[in-house]
Amino acid sequence: MARDLALAHLTTITLSPPEMIRVAARTGFQAVGLRLIRVTPTSPGYPLMDDPASMRATRSALRETGRRVHDIEFVKIEPGLDVSSLESFCAAGAALGASRIIAAPYDPDLGRLADRYAALCALAAGYGLGVVLEFFPWTVVPGLADALEIRRRAGAPANGGVLVDALHFYRSGSRLADLDGQDASVLPFLHLCDGPARGGDTLQERLLEARAERLAPGDGALALRALIEKMPVGIPISLEVPMDRMTAECGVEAVARHVHQATIHLLGSLDGSSRPFAPNSTPTS
């Protein structure tokens, strides 16, 4: 029995949620992550919380295909963030059956960042959602150890964790030893992709790689097997693999299919690759 996999929206970001869900179903994925809030001015978000018709179409696509929503994104914790403004976003996540919210650290005041992370966890808990803080090498929380420290400063919320993205993990210089002793309550799922052994030297090159030109698992040189084996057993794996050049040449569905097939091949080389995707259950709150 193969492990279930989720398709992250960035892999197919040009598709609306209903279209993306149908592509995920046709290419073998069992779940999706949906981007309801845009990350950059040039990259789309799909605010289902403000669009009842699109929300109905998305829920219809989920029912028709038997897929499920694993996570919703993308909350940038910035200095001016009013956490209470995210109420409708959280409500939309609950209506979609999501398990978690992905948040990102963009406040240079780390104490305030930890407080806002804690507040977001408290708000999300009321909707049966968990929150993961994703670290990025170009932010004030560049690596795994830094993200774990923010969680600690926030009081280690029961529904709050940290998101490990394979590219960011290795580009930040995070260590496999930093994963020791962390269970699924802290590291509840993994963003998987691949890349060259060495990333770009400039910020522009690093952002281009992360947001537009990753590689499918097994197509690059990152130590993915070692990372997967160090992560908590049985956690979900979500494939975040934007490949703009291949998308332009072959189409978005071909990208999703290649990513799925490459991942199945990689996981097939690991012992215990049949461990199932964790059920879409309500996180501890």
TrEMBL record:
Boundaries of every Xylose isomerase-like TIM barrel domain copy: 22-256
| InterPro entries referenced in this protein's UniProt entry, alphabetically | IolE/XylAMocC-like, Xyl_isomerase-like_sf, Xyl_isomerase-like_TIM-brl
Q: Does the keyword Isomerase apply?
A: yes
Q: Does the keyword Phosphoprotein apply?
A: no
Keywords from the named record: Isomerase
Any idea which GO molecular function terms this record carries? isomerase activity
Q: Which domain of life is it from?
A: Bacteria
Q: Which residues form the signal peptide?
A: none
Record protein name field: Sugar phosphate isomerase/epimerase
